[in-house]
Here is the input.
Amino acid sequence: MSSLTANNTSLPNQDDFGTRNIYSGMPITESMSNGFFTVNETWTVLSWNKAAEQILRLTGPEIIGKNLWEKFVGILPLNFYVVYHKAFLSDVPMHFKEYWPEMNAWFDVITYHVGNKLSVSFKSSSVPTSSARTNAKIQQMRIFDELYHYVTEVTNDCLWEWDLMNKQIFWIDGSHRRVFGYNVENALVPQAFWESRIHPEDRQKVMSQLRQFLAFPPAHHQWDIEYRFQRSGGEYA
Here is the structure.
């Protein structure tokens, strides 16, 4: 049985809901150091974050709305093509590492297929540390690091940052692998993936209570619920 606690301290008031999120208006995809993008089933790029721009040297306006393979034709290693196509046929996250000669770097990649979208989170060994990072971003990464070490050393609880407005969850720690078997750590997961892993008998109750919590947040700003969550092997915890 899984237990979920959502803290609503940073949520907007009901009359301005939708104008802010837990990153003060900045989507999780723009605050994370990993590159992140989404494509549909025709391989049209739907989103492309700032880290992806820096790592792959291609801006969002240059690739959003374009075909992924056409933009990287002839230079993308074959394994990227093979794994991405397999990912569209899989209901579980896929993780792989590949050397990209043209970039002179190793890439650590996690893919998620939910509905008709493929989400890709990646990091590269060649990304330089930018001296232009803001104090806010540095502080945010320190918080993530502290949470990670706490979870790793003290408890098997699974922690995440939840961008409720954009329906995205940042899985911070490695407990998701230890407890549920998903090879995911410090990566963005679509909320739809989390929803799809809730036991069918519990899903309606969980989502109904979540919607009520968001619409009418209680004074203590906290939501607790127990539900069954599917492990990577198919059984429920």
In short: The first helix runs from residue 28 to 31. Strands lie at 2-7, 35-40, 45-48, 94-100, 105-114, 117-124, 160-163, 168-171, 187-190, 222-227. The radius of gyration is 18 Å. Residues 34 and 123 are 5 Å apart (CA to CA).
